Amino acid sequence: VFIAQSRASGSHRDVEDEELTRIFVMIPKSYTEDDLREKFKMYGDIEYCSIIKNKTTGESKGLGYVRYLKPSQAARAIEECDRSYRAILAEPKNKTSESFEHDYYSNNMKQEPRGNTLPFCVQPEFCGFEKNESRIQESVSKRLSVVSRLPFIQEQLFALFDLVPGLEYCDVQRDPYTNSGYAVIQYSTAASAIYAKYKLHGFEYPPGNRLTVIFLEDGSDSSE
């Protein structure tokens, strides 16, 4: 319901949408904000670009933010931009930029990303951490697995995930022994699946019952 309401309010976006429109990228230190905008404008309408600079010297740290008007545009930029940018969704603004930059450097310098992998973490209560607190890497796909303590109703679950454009099918299954709910969701693009996962992982349906949404291998080429 709150997703539908936020869509209907044309004058402002809800907080979650705002947190899904900013991406964080690693760039050459020679880049200006105009260079950054030029490289990422093909993926959607950019609200602003900013380059993180050393407070003492004023030199670029080789990191920048790009803020899009729509979450789907940010997801497309992450999915389609050159892997050298190591694009991820930016942390919410309530986390200090210094700690985010440190985490980002630590995660990206340890290993090169393989295929289309992204360190996901938007809502802290739904994030998993290893013992060294590095973020878990997930392989992106167009297919999602949805798990619940309660059984699903096919029509209701379809209607919920159909709020995100591009839904191809919703296959609801039920475990006869535990009565828990399980479903496989597939979208036409990985960008739609990314958006659906962020919006609906942890969503209470019905109230008091949180959904668990993860990516499933869909057999597609990871480089694609």
TrEMBL record:
<protein>
    <submittedName>
        <fullName>RBM45 protein</fullName>
    </submittedName>
</protein>
<feature type="domain" description="RRM">
    <location>
        <begin position="21"/>
        <end position="95"/>
    </location>
</feature>
<dbReference type="InterPro" id="IPR034206">
    <property type="entry name" value="RBM45_RRM2"/>
</dbReference>
<dbReference type="InterPro" id="IPR012677">
    <property type="entry name" value="Nucleotide-bd_a/b_plait_sf"/>
</dbReference>
<dbReference type="InterPro" id="IPR000504">
    <property type="entry name" value="RRM_dom"/>
</dbReference>
<keyword id="KW-0677">Repeat</keyword>
<dbReference type="InterPro" id="IPR034207">
    <property type="entry name" value="RBM45_RRM3"/>
</dbReference>
<dbReference type="GO" id="GO:0003723">
    <property type="term" value="F:RNA binding"/>
</dbReference>
<dbReference type="InterPro" id="IPR035979">
    <property type="entry name" value="RBD_domain_sf"/>
</dbReference>
<dbReference type="Pfam" id="PF00076">
    <property type="entry name" value="RRM_1"/>
</dbReference>
<keyword id="KW-0694">RNA-binding</keyword>
